[in-house]
Amino acid sequence: MDRVGEVSVAERGPQFNAEFLERLCDLLKWRRDVRRFKRSKLPVGTIERLIATACLAPSVGLSEPWRFVVVEDQARRGAIRSCFADCNADSLAQQSPDRAALYARLKLAGLDDAPCQLSVFADRSTAQGGGLGRLTMPETLDYSVVIAIHTLWLAARAEGLGVGWVSILDPIRIAAILDVPAHWNFIGHLCVGYPAQDDDTPTLERQGWEHRRSPSGVVLYR
Fold this sequence. Notes:
The protein is an alpha+beta fold. The chain has a single domain (33-197), classed as NADH Oxidase. Helices cover 39% and strands 13% of the residues. The chain has eight helices and four strands; from the N terminus they run αααβααβαβαβα. α3 (46-54) packs across α6 and α4 packs antiparallel against α7 (171-178). It is globular and about 65 Å long.
């Protein structure tokens, strides 16, 4: 029997030992933004299971504003690929001369090879949650969806899968291509599949585009 004032085992919830915490840290280190995929198909039910895990993410006011579109139609995939090509060309044109050549060599999407593509939206009109927590910061709906994406990302990595977030896209064009409700706000397009190779260092760091900062450089104490 627990002594007065102590928290019972049931109240404490699950306990995670040092080995688990170390493995969790490994998972975070190996969660990379994947651009090169094998074309192997995912086992039946994989993406649905990952989406179910993503829905465990926290959301403002328990609004659960995430909306997932699994893109299987080849014509729609082709239209998304064209959208990326146009946006990527515009982005290349805006690069400084010293970065343009490197940018042109970067592979910034896995759209050609990834067996699964998933567009994720925030339903900004959802009544779920009764507006709790978002009166002064309505953008927290979008933030909630981002957390769900990260949750899916970690779950995929734990199963040996990779995820690539394609952000060089026109949100208006993507919404039209996928014919989604007008009040859905595009958050990101994900490529999901088996990585062609694994690495615990970000691709952009390996290729010299950018380097991680020390955590001490992004913290203020007041």
